[in-house]
Amino acid sequence: MVCSLIILLTLYFTLCLALLNTLSAAFVEEITDAIAINCVQKTSHLHFYFHDIVSGKSPSAVRVAGSPNSSIFDFGNMMMVDDALTEGPKLTSKLVGRAQGFYAMASQNEASLLMVMNFVFMEGKYNGSSITILGRNPVFVREMPIVGGSGLFRHARGYALAHTISVDPKNGDAIVEYHVYIWHFQGFVVA
Ligand SMILES: *[C@@H]1O[C@H](CO)[C@@H](O)[C@H](O)[C@H]1NC(C)=O
Ligand SMILES: *[C@@H]1O[C@H](CO)[C@@H](O)[C@H](O)[C@H]1NC(C)=O
User: Fold this and answer.
1) How far, in Å, is the centroid of ligand 1 from the Cα of 70?
2) Ligand 2 pocket, 123 CB below 6 A?
3) 122 Cβ below 6 A of ligand 2
4) pLDDT digits (tens, 9 = 90+) for 148-179
5) Is 67 near ligand 1, meaning CB less than 6 Å away?
6) Region 63-88: what's the mean pLDDT?
7) Which among 3, 13, 24, 101 would be 20 to 30 A from 169, CA to CA?
8) How confident is the model at residue 134 (pLDDT cuts 50, 70, 90)?
């Protein structure tokens, strides 16, 4: 893994520099043998529901760019969101996090969004940890890349699969089911 390789090389060069002046070459070799440290990665699967509320007095998604007269799905529209992530499909179900960032209509010919968003979690051991989603969200495919994270999700990589549960035809409010698969840092072990 890149992570363990970088740590190994960093330690190797640090030790080599430190030892160069004081120790014999044979001793340096012995030390470098003893520092095979591996970075342990873990896979987490999270499941939750995303509530994009565009209607009413306190919407959680507001248009910040694009023609005010166009429909939400027209090219160029950008929505800034602070959407609730819940355990169950109902908005009243337990809040497990928030999706904060924006999505923008990035295609002139099809329903395809650019997603730039942090999902910050608020529940249990994940409280305060976040993942960053950055990439294309083709509305009829719905796979998005996870490019980073914080807290428990340091060094995160992975993908998010989304599935629209409902869209209110009158006001555009949507509920989207998410399954996210995250490979992230867990710790170091000395091999
Ligand atoms: C939006 O619609 C209003 C009312 O129909 C109109 O007065 C205005 O010029 C339109 N704005 C744009 C940017 O098309
Ligand atoms: C999450 O962490 C915040 C800040 O540390 C704390 O106020 C809150 O009660 C925690 N929530 C849960 C569900 O543990």
Assistant:
1) 9
2) yes
3) yes
4) 999 999 999 999 999 999 999 888 899 999 99
5) yes
6) 91
7) 101
8) very high
Query: Is 41-186 CATH 2.40.480.10?
Result: yes
Could you tell me which of 93, 189, 190, 176 has the C-alpha nearest to residue 137? 176
Which residue bears the tokens 């800034």? 80
Please give the full DSSP string across the chain, using - where no structure is assigned.
-HHHHHHHHHHHHHHHHHHHTTS-HHHHHHHHHT--EEEEEEEEEEEEEEEE--SSSS-SEEEEES-TTS-TTSTT-EEEEEEEEESSSSTTSPEEEEEEEEEEE--SSS-EEEEEEEEEE-SGGGTT-EEEEEEEEETTT-EEEEEEEEGGGTT-EEEEEEEEEEE-TTT--EEEEEEEEEEEEEEEEE-
In this prediction the pTM is 0.78
With the most atoms of ligand 1 within 8 angstroms of its CB, the residue from 67, 69, 77 to mutate is 69
- Distance from Cα 68 to the centre of ligand 2, integer Å: 38
Give nearest CA residue, ligand 1 atom 8: 69
Using the structure block, give the residue that is written with the tokens 């989207």.
176
